[in-house]
Structure formats: C-alpha cells, structure tokens
DNA sequence: GCTTGTGAACGAATTCACAGCT
DNA sequence: AGCTGTGAATTCGTTCACAAGC
C-alpha cells in the first residue's frame, strides 16, 4: 500500500470517482458498490475495485463501499482535505472567466490572488481580489502561501511567467497556454490545450467514428 | 498503414508534433530529426519515430523529416486540412472567453455559431456572430454544417444541451462542464475539467513531488 | 558517417476469474 | 448469497537495439 506505486492512470480517475461519490451522497445513498459506481463514472467494476485496492482495503465484502468514508479517503489521497491555495496568472478574458468560476471552490481550491502585467488592470479589483502586477509576484506568492498556479497568459509570455512562479516557490502549475513549459525537477505541470482536444476530435471525425476516443 | 490501428496515445501526441513543426517552420528550419523534434515536444526520439511509423514512411534515412511535408501529413491525418466548423454552446464568461480566443482559428477550427438560452443574450452579437437561442439549435447546427460543438454550459444544463447537439447531427463534442455525458455510439466526446487537473496536481503536492505526472 | 524504421524486449494498465470475507 | 480484493492473463504502450538506406 505504499502509494508511491499508485498507477498514474488510477490517480487520474480519482477526481471522477470523487465527483460521483459526492453526487451519490447528495442523493442520500449511504453505500455504493463497484458496479453502480462504475456506471456513474463510465468505467467498469473491475477497474473501480482495482483502483481502490491501491489505496487500501476500503470496502466491505458482501456489502460495498461506504460513501462518506470513501469520500474522505479519496480527498485525503488527493490532498484536498484542507483547501489548497491557488492563484491565476494572466487576467485576460480566460483568466477572468476562471476567477468567476465557482467550481474550484467546491472541489478543494481557493483562488487567493490574480496577476497580470497590464498597467491598466493592476490595482483594479475583481471578485474581491486585487490584481497584482508581475514585478512582485514572487513575493506575493510566498506571502499568500500559494501552492498552485493557473497560467492563463498569452503564449509568448508564458515561459517567463512560469519561471517567476517557480522562483516564487510554487510546485504545481496548470498551464492553459499552448506552449511546452520548461520547469525544474520537482515542479509538476499539467497542460490543458483545447485546440489539442479539438484536433483529436477532428481525427475521429476523419475516421468516420470508426475508432473509440 | 491501416490507420484504424494508430494507437490512441499516438493520436494524442500528434497535435503537439504539429505545433512544434509549425514553430520549426516559422524558424526557417526545412528539416528536423527525431532527436530535435523530441526535444521540442518533451518526448524522446524513439517515441517520435515509432509514432510517425504508424502514419507511413515519412522521413529519409540519414537525413530526417521534411518539415513542410510532415506538417501536411499530420494535418491530413488529423483531418484539419480544411477548417472544421465548430460552435460554442453556453455563452457565459467561459463561452465568451473562448469565442474571443484566436488560437482555434490558427489550429484548424472556425467558430461559426454561438448558442445560449438566456433571453437577454439571444440576438445580441459578439465577435461578429449573433447569439442563437437553444430552441432552434438543431436546425441552425444543420444549416451551418457544424461538425464540432464546445459545451460551456452550467453542469445541470449540459446533458440536455448535448442531447440537442447530437440530434442536430454533431458527431464530436468537447465538454467543459464537470459531468459525464451520455451520448449514442458514434459520437466522440472529450472531457476537459480544470478542477480535475488541479486535483491531480494536488496529489503530486501531497506526495511531496516524489512522483512524475 | 548519420538517421530512419521496426521487430523484439520490456513495462504498465486493464480485464479476467476466483478465493476470501460478511 | 453477495461483493470485495487480488493474483494471473491479457492487452496496450514504450523503449531498446540494430538492420536498412541515404
């Protein structure tokens, strides 16, 4: 049960399990079994059981899984029992849209700062947060104890922003710009690129739907 | 070279290759080899060669790959030689931000319509497009020959919107709402959920960076 | 010489099938 | 009886290492 050996793919499914379990809880279901959970998440029962087995023995044979317990356990594994502090860098349309999005708050994250280098935006406030400039970003990130940064900057500015964010002590970056980031060992980056996803969808159209996604 | 057997993982890397190749082209590089391309994309040379081998014999031994040819070939495989017609459903902050994003146009997609069911938005125009209501969405999707839809709707409205989109003949959906979509066989869905990515990053923080992402 | 293309070896993830517990 | 947990089998993907060709 050394969780250094939880497979990557399992980790990537944990958020979906969590979402389904919260939904089950909202529906007053005290228990789920691997079958029903699999159906809710779009997987299969064997996958569910195998995934959970990497985290420990979480269920009861003959019965199933206790929804509340399982939520607690997964939240602990994901490290979101206490809210994680996040910041948005790049307060353009996209950054602004993300700041207004309530989903982060419901899923374990609190946006505690926003940064941009546009003089006309710095100092203005949005959703209760003041927009900071990029000059003192390292200091502000440290002062506010920011753990995760969402980069919503223009492509050309992104690597530079990432460098500052890293030197501000941040160890996890969600990059929304279509650029490969160069970061030191020990900093985790996840890349989200909608154009990439559209291109993958286009491939499936080109195949006439003959392949699964 | 039956491309029904191009591995999923290879397909998912093609957009990144394409991006790097376009960059190489912009830098006046007529040729690349598997090493340099791997470096640009953050993979390794063996992976690059294997991936391309699924698409045919695209390179020249002793020389490398012709950048222009390779761009053409990958674009063809991805089905983006001619622009694909896309629409955005849900014209909230996120939908609005996406409409204003120029990256889609540069990567093979044209946003040809926007939909929302908010009375106060319908009929207004944004970025040269009029916002349509949801009532006649099937008809409009067909008239404009929309191939791909981006769902940027509130969670609760998403499945309903997806159903209409599907009955409008659309076979590819990019879903930005945190809900598992139920769609008929033959419709491709890709799910993007930033909260999910943040949770995965949180896991890595919880592990103290001991795991790769 | 250099670089691709690819079978073969390896490793990772999914699925199977059943033993073990309630 | 019902459902989990897990080794074993299978499938899928990556990496290796070298032969083929420029």
Protein traits:
alpha/beta, Arc Repressor Mutant, subunit A, Rossmann fold, seven-stranded mixed beta sheet, two-stranded antiparallel ribbon, DNA-binding
Quick gist of this model?
With 213 residues, the first copy, chain A, is an alpha/beta fold. Chain A has helices at residues 8-26, 34-41, 45-53, 67-78, 93-99, 103-106, 137-144, 155-167, 194-206, and strands at 31-32, 65-66, 84-89, 109-115, 125-126, 129-132, 148-151, 172-175, 188-191. A 7-stranded mixed sheet of chain A has the order 5-6-4-3-7-8-9, with helices on both faces. In chain A, strands 1-2 form a two-stranded antiparallel sheet.
Describe this structure in words.
The structure is a homodimer of 213-residue chains. Chain A has 213 residues and is an alpha/beta fold. Chain A folds into two domains: 3-78, Winged helix-like DNA-binding domain superfamily/Winged helix DNA-binding domain (Arc Repressor Mutant, subunit A); 84-195, NAD(P)-binding Rossmann-like Domain (Rossmann fold, 3-Layer(aba) Sandwich), CATH 3.40.50.720. In chain A, 44% of the residues lie in helices and 16% in strands. Chain A has nine helices and nine strands. Chain A has helices spanning 8-26, 34-41, 45-53, 67-78, 93-99, 103-106, 137-144, 155-167, 194-206; strands at 31-32, 65-66, 84-89, 109-115, 125-126, 129-132, 148-151, 172-175, 188-191. In chain A, strands 5-6-4-3-7-8-9 form a seven-stranded mixed β-sheet, with helices on both faces. In chain A, strands 1-2 form a two-stranded antiparallel ribbon. In chain A, strand 7, helix 8 and strand 8 form a beta-alpha-beta unit. Chains A and B meet through helix 1, helix 5, helix 6, strand 8 and strand 9 of A and helix 1, helix 5, helix 6, strand 8 and strand 9 of B. Chain A binds a DNA duplex (22 and 22 nucleotides) through residues 7-10, 33-35, 44-47, 49-50, 52-53, 57-65.
């Amino acid at each position: 049960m050394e969780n250094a050996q939880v497979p990557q793919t399992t980790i990537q499914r944990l958020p979906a399990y969590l979402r389904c379990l919260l939904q089950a809880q909202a529906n007053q279901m005290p228990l789920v079994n691997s079958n029903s959970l699999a159906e809710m998440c779009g997987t299969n029962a064997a996958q569910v059981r195998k995934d959970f087995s990497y985290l420990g023995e979480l269920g009861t044979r003959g019965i199933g899984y206790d929804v509340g317990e399982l939520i607690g356990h997964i939240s602990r594994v994901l490290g979101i029992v206490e809210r994680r502090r996040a910041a948005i860098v790049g307060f353009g349309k996209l950054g602004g849209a993300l700041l207004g999005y309530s989903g982060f708050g419901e899923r374990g994250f609190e946006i505690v700062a926003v940064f941009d280098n546009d003089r006309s935006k710095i100092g203005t406030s949005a959703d209760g947060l003041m927009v900071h400039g990029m000059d003192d970003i390292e200091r502000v990130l440290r002062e506010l104890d920011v753990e995760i940064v969402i980069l919503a900057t223009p492509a050309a500015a992104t690597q530079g922003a990432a460098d500052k964010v890293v030197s501000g002590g941040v160890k996890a970056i969600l990059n929304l710009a279509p650029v490969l980031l160069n970061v030191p060992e020990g900093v985790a980056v996840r890349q989200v690129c909608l154009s990439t996803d559209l291109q993958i969808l286009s491939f499936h159209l080109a195949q006439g739907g003959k392949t699964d996604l």
